[in-house]
Fold DNA-binding GntR family transcriptional regulator.
Amino acid sequence: MGDAAQTLGTSTFERMKAMILDGTLEPGAPLREKNFADRLGVSRTPVREAISQLVSEGFAERATSGTPVVSSISLADIMEILHVRSLLECEAARKAALSNGKKDDLLELRAKIVGFLDGIRPNSEAHFALDVQLHLAIARNAGSRLLAELIEGLKVKTRMYGQGSIPERFEPGCHEHLAIIDAIVSGEPENAAEAMRFHLKKVRESIISHINHPF
């Protein structure tokens, strides 16, 4: 495959993934090659490659009908994901607080969060992007590339379930992030781990409260 074909396949994948993450494509939506080739203005080959990559990364799944569909994540799945995130990210926060690095990246993100609170509220995409940057910066400060990769993958799955931010979580979430950063920068490992644990507990509670299930 040439570079141009690879680039087209990658860009098609990114466009389709973005449509899943922002809720344009809902769980269970069929991913038919011809429909998306027409919709995205490309041939069926890059769409076929993009769908295969979406399946391999868990964004889509093969349905009994044979047509791939956007993956659905159950409440049990999201609770397990948040449990594993808590295990990983509390340890990441603790290790980051013990590290001897300058932590300039965390201080820059802290300033942006304060700016969000003091200024115009960002849209959900900008807020989510900063949220990802912060959690990955904490993992990097912990000194583990593998930890950062695992956390990033789990955050994407959390995002797939939430389909965007929960508005009333914006301000509390910002203050929770500030508490995590401050504990890490101050070199307080147990406080950093507890601040992360509290933050993910609140994320879990907010998701549960926004689920309209019959039980």
The two ends are 50 Å apart (CA to CA). The chain is about 70% helix and 5% strand. The chain has a mean pLDDT of 87.
